[in-house]
TrEMBL record:
This is Type I restriction enzyme, S subunit. The keyword Magnesium does not apply. Residues 2-157 form the Type I restriction modification DNA specificity domain. Belongs to the type-I restriction system S methylase family. GO terms for molecular function: DNA binding. GO terms for biological process: DNA restriction-modification system. Signal peptide: none annotated. Keywords: Coiled coil, DNA-binding, Restriction system. It comes from Treponema bryantii. Residues 139-166 form a coiled coil. InterPro entries: Restrct_endonuc_typeI_TRD (IPR000055), Restrct_endonuc_typeI_TRD_sf (IPR044946), Type-I_RS_S_subunit (IPR052021). The keyword Calcium does not apply. It comes from the Bacteria.
Length: 402
């Protein structure tokens, strides 16, 4: 297979950044996806691109990441659109750019950035389009299998959320027709339910750590770190975004995450995305980190009193508190950054507590759902590994493609 050298600008019919969009116009749901520096940001009601292309993040911590996009989407000013010309395949171009580690061209500024001008001069070895098409078809099979699993994961998570809402928001739990109601500090609740403070159900907590980039005598222990930025992917079972760092022994041992611990984000929020997001760390998830995981400095590790509350019930209660913006009561804004009033949250934060049997029945049902999510996430991990092993060999022409 013959490869020829081209500059990226020569391969594209379009190589340019998108247009700015305000945070108010980006929603969790909508008609058209919005792509930014780190891929999908949310959804909006209009689009400014229609077709297929590679999207390159051009600013921030994920500068240089590459994703393939097809359809009608909105490209923000922090995304570079690399749309192949008629002699090249946009999906192949996305795969190719993805293995080039474009972040290394971002410079040494405090806020990493890639200019379109610099990207356009990037030299790349490319084969004929016919070969590009065949390689893209092979690799797409892996991506399609991963996407199908992701859809199943989303449906399973929605199933768990709907069960919580049915039982503990609408109060249509087993035996609900015989239930009487009473007034409480959070409104009318079933008589068999109670309301506790966060301090009554949390047995222990500690702030996270960050460690060091490199191993040394003072930082000898290697462990992954889960940050607030990782929560959306972590919830879906994707652990690949969690960085691996080196930690002091004392810091690591006091912060190591155990089965069914909760991690709470306590800093770095915005008006649109307040702090207070949570993730639950199951036994199966920990095993994928070889049981070596801590939370980052802007988070708190929360350990529950399991004689009082079931972990999955607490997790979905916190999801409800966040989604309904009750969490806004505990926001503290200072110099443009929103932090979490954790001590106030401990004293004043409410937790709805159903009867023990009902709570643990819910926990058991949802735990089964999360095991299915974990199995699908592991399958995705294996598919991605197989694809990534094939990718450089296919790109180089070392594997015969028919």
């Amino acid at each position: 297979m013959e490869f020829k050298s081209y500059r990226l600008g020569e391969l594209c019919q379009r190589l340019s950044s998108g247009k700015s969009i305000t945070a108010e116009n980006i929603k969790e749901e909508g008609k058209y996806p919005v792509y930014g520096a780190n891929g999908l940001r949310g959804y909006t009601d209009s689009y400014n691109f229609d077709g297929s292309c590679a999207v390159i993040g051009r600013q921030g911590a994920y500068c240089g990441n590459v994703k393939y996009v097809s359809g009608q989407v909105y490209m923000s000013e922090h995304a570079v659109v690399a749309q192949a010309n008629k002699y090249n395949n946009s999906k192949y171009l996305a795969y190719k750019l993805g293995i080039l580690q474009l972040g290394r061209f971002s410079g040494q500024a405090a806020q990493p950035g890639l200019s379109v001008q610099r990207l356009s001069r990037l030299l790349m070895e490319m084969p004929e389009k016919d070969f590009q098409d065949k390689v893209s078809t092979i690799l797409s099979r892996y991506d399609e299998a991963i996407e199908n699993n992701n859809k199943r994961i989303k449906l399973l998570e929605e199933m768990a959320q709907n069960l919580y809402k049915e039982w503990f928001v609408r109060f249509r739990f087993p035996g609900w027709k015989n239930e009487q109601y009473k007034d409480s500090c959070i409104g009318k609740i079933p008589k068999t339910f109670s309301v506790l403070k966060q301090s009554e159900v949390i047995s222990d907590y500690i702030g996270g750590g960050w460690g060091n980039d490199d191993e040394s005598a003072n930082y000898p222990i290697q462990a992954a770190v889960v940050r607030g930025a990782d929560f959306p992917e972590f919830t879906k079972g994707n652990v690949s975004t969690c960085p691996v760092r080196f930690h002091k022994k004392s810091n690591y041992e006091s912060r190591i995450i155990s089965e069914d611990d909760i991690v709470l984000e306590v800093s770095g929020g915005t008006q649109e995305q307040p702090v207070g997001r949570t993730v639950i760390v199951t036994k199966e998830r920990l095993e994928r980190f070889d049981n070596k995981l801590i939370c980052a400095s802007f988070c708190k590790l929360i350990r529950l009193n399991k004689q009082i509350i079931a972990p999955f019930f607490y997790y979905y209660w916190m999801q409800f508190v966040y989604d309904t913006r009750i969490i806004d009561r505990y926001q503290l804004q200072s110099t443009g950054i929103i932090n979490f009033k954790f001590e106030y949250f401990l004293r004043k934060g409410d937790v709805l507590l159903p009867p023990s049997e009902l709570m643990w029945e819910f926990d058991s049902k949802v735990r089964t759902i999360h095991k299915q999510i974990e199995n699908l996430a592991k399958a995705n991990e294996n598919l991605a590994k197989q694809r990534d092993l094939l990718l450089p060999r296919l790109m180089s022409g070392k594997l015969e493609v028919k």
